[in-house]
Design a protein that fits this description.
Order of helices and strands: EEHHEEHHHHHHEHEEHHEHEEH
Number of strands: 10
Mean pLDDT: 85
Oligomer: single chain
Largest sheet: 4 strands, mixed
Number of helices: 13
Strand content: 5-15%
Structural class: alpha/beta
Length: about 375
C-alpha cells in the first residue's frame, strides 16, 4: 500500500509514520482552505492570514487522523492484537494490523473506536470554538477550530460507510461474523459490498465531474477506486493468511541458498553473484556463520577502481531484523515482513547460522497450487 515512509514519533508505544503521498493531500487541504473556504466564511483578512489558517487546518487534519487511528490501535491492543503502528497516506490513515481480530466482538469494538473518538473530538473542538467566539478570540483561531470540529464529524461519517475495509465495513463484517460464525464468509460478503460501494462512488465521481465540479468529482472517483481495490485485496489477504496459517518457514525455505564467501572480491561478487543470480541482496558467510548482508547499494558506494582489492566481508552490513527470520516462525509472519519492507527474500537464521533463504516466489507458487487443488476450501 505504501511507498517511502518517514517515522515521526512514537505515541503510547505505537510508531507514527507518514507516507510521502500524505504531503500531497496536506498541500491540497491547505491550498483549498487558504484560497477557497476561509476567504468565503471569514472576510477581510490578509492573504498571509488565510495561508496560515490553511496550514493550521492541514495540521488539524493530521492531528484528527492520528487520534482516530490511535483509538483503533488502543482498542486492538486491549484485545491482544499486535499493531505495527499508524501510517498517514494520501487517502487518510491506517492502523496497521499484523493479524485478524480474534473475535467478532473484538472487531466490532476496534472498528467503532475510531469513529467514536472522531465524534467526541469533533464535539469538544466545536464546543471550544463556541466558547472562543463568545470570548472574542481571534478569528483565525476560531476559524481553524471550526474546521477541525467539522472535519472530525465528516471523518466519522465517512468511515462509518459500510464499505469494507472502512470502519463501517468492519462493523458490518463483525455482525455477519457473529451471525454465522464464519470469518471467511463474512469477509467475502463485506468485501463484495465494499467493492460495490466503491464502484458507485466512482460512477458518482464521474457524473459529478461532468456536471462541472471536476476536482471534487475526480477526487471522489479516486477514493472509490481505492475502496474497491482495498476491499478486494483485504479478502485476498485473508485467503492467503488462512492458506498459510500454521505453516513454518522451515517448510518453504531453500536450504542451500546462494551465498557469498567473505573473502570474495567485490569484482567477483558483482560478476559471479549479482549478474549471475540477479539478486539485489546477498548473504555473506564464513563457513556456515552469517557475517552480514550486502546489497547493490553497498557495492555502488565503493569506487569502481577498488572492486578488485576490496572484499565482500568488508562491506557486508549486519542483516536487519526485518530481513531475517527464524525457521520455526509462522510463515504468515514472513509474509507480513516482506509486505512491510517491500522485500522478496528473507534470510533464515538459526543460532547465528544461515540455514536457508525464504523467497516470496516460492510462497506464491505454493498458494497457486493449493488454490488450484482445493479451490473454495482454502
Amino acid at each position: 500500500m505504501f511507498g517511502k515512509t518517514i517515522t515521526l514519533f512514537r505515541l503510547f508505544g505505537f510508531r507514527v509514520r507518514i507516507d510521502l503521498s500524505w504531503f500531497l493531500i496536506a498541500a491540497l487541504v491547505a491550498w483549498s482552505l487558504a484560497v477557497g473556504a476561509f476567504p468565503l466564511y471569514y472576510e477581510n483578512l490578509s492573504a498571509a492570514t488565510y495561508w496560515w489558517m490553511g496550514i493550521g487546518g492541514a495540521l488539524a487534519l493530521f492531528v484528527s487522523i492520528v487520534v482516530h487511528e490511535l483509538c483503533h490501535s488502543l482498542a486492538a491492543r486491549r484485545y491482544g492484537m499486535e499493531m505495527r503502528g499508524i501510517t498517514l497516506f494520501v487517502f487518510g490513515g491506517v492502523a496497521e494490523m499484523t493479524e485478524e481480530p480474534s473475535s467478532a466482538v473484538a472487531e466490532f469494538v476496534m472498528a467503532l473506536a475510531g469513529p467514536a473518538s472522531s465524534i467526541v473530538l469533533g464535539g469538544l473542538v466545536l464546543g471550544l470554538h463556541h466558547l472562543g467566539t463568545q470570548a472574542g478570540w481571534p478569528v483565525p483561531l476560531t476559524g481553524v477550530l471550526s474546521y477541525m470540529g467539522l472535519i472530525n464529524l465528516v471523518l466519522a461519517g465517512f468511515n462509518l460507510l459500510p464499505a469494507f475495509p472502512l470502519d463501517g465495513g468492519r462493523v458490518f463484517r463483525a455482525a455477519l461474523w457473529a451471525w454465522r460464525g464464519n470469518l471467511r464468509w463474512a469477509t467475502r460478503i463485506a468485501s463484495v459490498t465494499g467493492s460495490a460501494i466503491g464502484l458507485l462512488m466512482v460512477a458518482g465521481g464521474v457524473l459529478y465531474a461532468l456536471s462541472g465540479a471536476l476536482i471534487g468529482g475526480l477526487w471522489l472517483a479516486f477514493i472509490g477506486m481505492f475502496i474497491r481495490g482495498a476491499s478486494r485485496m483485504s479478502y485476498q489477504q485473508l485467503l492467503t493468511r488462512k492458506a498459510l496459517e500454521g505453516e513454518k518457514v522451515r517448510r518453504f525455505m531453500r536450504a542451500q541458498p546462494v551465498t557469498v564467501p567473505g573473502e570474495a572480491t567485490i569484482a567477483d561478487l558483482v560478476e559471479d553473484y549479482v549478474y549471475t543470480h540477479h539478486f539485489k541482496m546477498l548473504p555473506v558467510v564464513e563457513g556456515e556463520r552469517l557475517l552480514g548482508c550486502v546489497t547493490t547499494r553497498d557495492i555502488k558506494e565503493v569506487p569502481r577502481e577498488e572492486w578488485s582489492q576490496r572484499r565482500a566481508g568488508e562491506i557486508a552490513r549486519t542483516c536487519s531484523p526485518e530481513n531475517t527470520i527464524s525457521p520455526d516462525q509462522d510463515v504468515t509472519e514472513a509474509l507480513s515482513s516482506m509486505h512491510r519492507t517491500q522485500s522478496s527474500r528473507l534470510m533464515v537464521v538459526e543460532d547465528g547460522r544461515l540455514v536457508g533463504v525464504l523467497a516470496l516466489k516460492d510462497l506464491l507458487e505454493f498458494l497457486s497450487l493449493k488454490v488450484d487443488l482445493e479451490g473454495d476450501s482454502v
